[in-house]
Amino acid sequence: MTRRLLTLEDAKHAVYGGCILGGGGGGWIKDGLEKAEQAFTLGTPELITVDDLSPEDYVACVSLVGAPSAKEIYVDADQLVDTVKRMQKELSHPLKALMTNENGAATTINGWLQAAAVGLPVIDAPSNGRAHPTGSMGSMNLSEVEGYESLQTYAGGKGEKRVAGSVIGNLDISSNTVRNVSVLAGGMVAVCRNPVNVNYIKEHAAVGGITQAIELGEVFFSVPEGPDRIEAVASHLKGRVIHSGKVSEFELKEQGGFDVGIVRVDDLELTFWNEYMTAEIQGVRKGTFPDLLMTFDVDTGMPIVSAEMREGVNIAVISVPKENLLLSSTMFNEKLLKNIEPIIQKEII
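The chain above was modelled as a monomer; its predicted structure follows.
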């Protein structure tokens, strides 16, 4: 048993380590740090392992769904907590813990605030150990469970855009409904979804993924500000820096609640669908999702998510083979990966 009370220092490391594991998505560092501070005003979140619960205990996943670049995003602490309370009312089983959907700057600490507010622990098993664009990719292959009915509760937006509710249906319909609601809410909603038992989590989630993010954050801050940080991160993840230079072209458009676009640096081309999907140098593939591709400011060593990229920024790009990551079973589901291809007009499979 390895229960531990989390600290603000853990949260800082989780946000920065999670940002790197976000691979261009997973939210903004500023949002992650703010939500972490809010969590500790409500209580002290507790991190537990899969072995701290009974195999039949139920855990629900918390998430943020939407396009990070949207201009009217609003999700407050009460809305985050509301999704969990709605889930507790809707679900016939008692919830014993919360899990995050993925690693990212704002998503690794998903659930810390909600857990502190409602008195539940956080389980060290994200639905995925890296960030990913679609709800189905964060569903631990529930899309392959015949007859599975997805329960999702959501809240977000303010003023006339404020929404809250729940949806029950097959996984695609429920996920697409929440994605569409996020657009109407101004770009993003908080979600609590897809409760499953611990046995299922052990088989399909990225067990140990929160600890991985915290440890990566510790490595990041162990090196002084600058390019050496990028090398330290790449080395720790058993990846490499594939290119560095000035961004010559950056295209981003919001498409169906996602950020879709291209980053070009010299002969390097990165495509992204929230997260970076492919890296090619003169047409030669250097990384393909779910490999981890991530961008950094060369001067400071700070990670840069896709939504904050700009022309003229001097960046370095790392590539980490998927074999060196903690990943969900969905990252090996070719049907889900195939859905990326028409969005970015690149081969993934």
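Residues 127 and 316 are 28 Å apart (CA to CA).
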